[in-house]
Amino acid sequence: MTIVENPDAVVGGVDTHVDMHMAAVVNHVGGNLGVESFRTTQAGYRQLVSWLGSHGELVLVGVEGTGSYGVGLARYLARAGIAVVEVDRPNRQTRHRQGKSDPVDAVAAARAALSGQATGLPKARDGNVEAIRVFMIARRSAVDTRIETLNQLRHVVFTATPEIRAKFTGLTAISLGNKAAVNHALHLIAITQLRYPNTEGRVFYERKLAEGKTKKEAIRVLKRRLSDVVYRHLQTDQQPR
């Protein structure tokens, strides 16, 4: 039985934002049954799903921005066993001419899902892809910290006395970087690697456990291994291109 043939079926649509999501629900022929806003928290997601389901048999939800603002909701819906499709955001020029309307966009998302116009799979933000994304963010953060610290060091040395300038000549930015920030980034990369099977970090960690190390020791060794990887990337970035 198709959605249109099921009079009890309802379809949701969500216009996503940073702090609030605007949700709409339509019946099996596209009639608007209601529009409501919900906070972008786990409690908000539960309320949103409960509200959609209160109108009938929830069979599908169209979500805008499943790779950005809607990623948390899309993941929550998938874990709840609710079918989700990616809905393209309306053309920006059209939105500008007609005026931005979150309720209208939410209803349009629901109708796009109902009609089959929206059929895209939600963008995945987990597994190895997410681990790589987090690693690259941490790496960029480390590079930015190195550059910022180096610029600060250059300014201080430039304005210092000749004796102090001589003392600091040759110091690298990495030795003066924010160690707490770097350690946090390495910890985040390590934990992300451990969350998923068959990542290089997970394989390395399990090998250390098999060698007799405790979990804490294995994580410490993994972070040290990751720091070597990041350092090699930083060295590469400093080479002339």
Report on this model:
This protein has 241 residues and is an alpha/beta fold. It folds into two domains: 9-115, Nucleotidyltransferase, domain 5 (2-Layer Sandwich); 127-238, no CATH class. The chain is 57% helix and 14% strand. It is built from ten helices and five strands. A five-stranded mixed beta sheet has the order 3-2-1-4-5. Strand 2 (20-26) and strand 3 (32-39) form a beta hairpin. Helix 8 packs across helix 10 (215-238). The longest helix is centred in the middle third of the chain and has 33 residues, at 127-159. 26% of the residues are buried.
Span between N and C termini? 61 Å
Rg value = 25 Å
Strand order of the largest sheet: 3-2-1-4-5
**From the helix content, strand content and strand pairing, which structural class follows?**
alpha/beta
Mean of residue pLDDT?
Answer: 76
Number of separate strands? 5
Please state roughly what percent of the residues sit in beta strands, choosing from under 5%, 5-15%, 15-25%, 25-35%, 35-45% or over 45%.
5-15%
**Tertiary shape:** elongated
Largest sheet: 5 strands, mixed
From the structure provided, what is the oligomeric state, counting identical versus distinct chains? single chain
Spans of at least 5 consecutive residues whose pLDDT stays below 50 are 91-96, 171-177
